[in-house]
Design a protein that fits this description.
Blueprint: H1 4-19, E1 26-27, E2 39-50, E3 53-65, E4 71-82, E5 88-91, H2 97-110, H3 112-119
Antiparallel strand pairs: 1-2, 2-3, 3-4, 4-5
Helix pairs in contact: 1-2
Length: 122
């Protein structure tokens, strides 16, 4: 099993590289397959390729039952290594820094910074 510290360092480096524009993310061609009725995709799924490895990142809701017919939804981020067909070959363990990565990816792939810079030009 991979040490958690190594994964944390990897995610932090992805955040930095994404914010600097060294890694580009786009809307994922392959939509994640989620268990019907238990999980649901909240927003776009994003993907990138780094050193010939493909990764997918997405926000989803998961259903938690408190009783037989009572439940609530919680929001999570999932980060996966995927194959060429979009199948998950490794799911990274959840940690809070995935929220920061998701926010950085969403901002960079939206093009909002470039739009605002262009808009504010004299």
């Amino acid at each position: 099993m991979m040490p958690k510290n190594k994964i944390s360092l990897f995610i932090l480096e992805l955040i930095k590289m994404t914010k600097k524009g060294q890694i580009s993310w786009q809307e994922s061609f392959h939509t994640p397959i989620l268990p019907d009725g238990i999980e649901r995709l909240v927003d776009l799924a994003y993907s990138t390729t780094i050193k010939e490895k493909s990764f997918r990142l997405y926000k989803y809701n998961t259903k938690h039952f408190t009783d037989e017919y009572e439940y609530y939804w919680s929001e999570r981020i999932r980060f996966e290594l995927i194959d060429n067909d979009g199948n998950c070959t490794f799911e990274f363990p959840y940690e809070y820094s995935l929220n920061d990565l998701y926010d950085a990816v969403r901002e960079s792939s939206s093009g909002i910074n470039e739009f605002i810079d262009d808009f504010l030009k004299p």
